[in-house]
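Tutorial, part two.
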Amino acid sequence: MVDIESDGPIPGDFSMISFGAVLVDEQLDKTFYGKLKPVSDKFIPEALAVSGHSREETLSFDEPNIVMEGFADWINKICKDRPIFISDNNGFDWMFICWYFHHFLGTNPFGFSSQNLGSLYKGMEKDTFKSFKHLRKTKHTHNPLDDAKGNAEALLTMKNEFGLKIKF
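Running the prediction step on this input gives:
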């Protein structure tokens, strides 16, 4: 489960500021958190404010290539099978993670596809207006590690209480 924070709407022109990832299993104790130095001079102050960081802070974050190498190593270490990218808003989160992996490493350990947690829940409920967010236990704080963990908790609830067939 992955969540990202950025300083604008698209990668390249704007920057991924931070991201968190949680291996979805019963323990939820295998995590990765990265804070990345901006790749562009452009940023939208309102978008950056969501992350809780100032522009000055972000300029001292780690080099993106180092963070993405660390993330790829973490994925390869903890995933016994093919890793699957799942997020609350995969259209947004995926484009940043995929762009950063390909831009800095030339490859993406997740391959070329992602899964959307909200769409999964809507399908389970057979209602396109349903939200899974009440299934989170960890408060949604816009710290991407907290948010990834809350979304992982929701997925576990879908499995354990609603019978979702999913292999961890």
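The first strand starts at residue 2 and ends at 6. In part three we will examine how such features are distributed along the chain.
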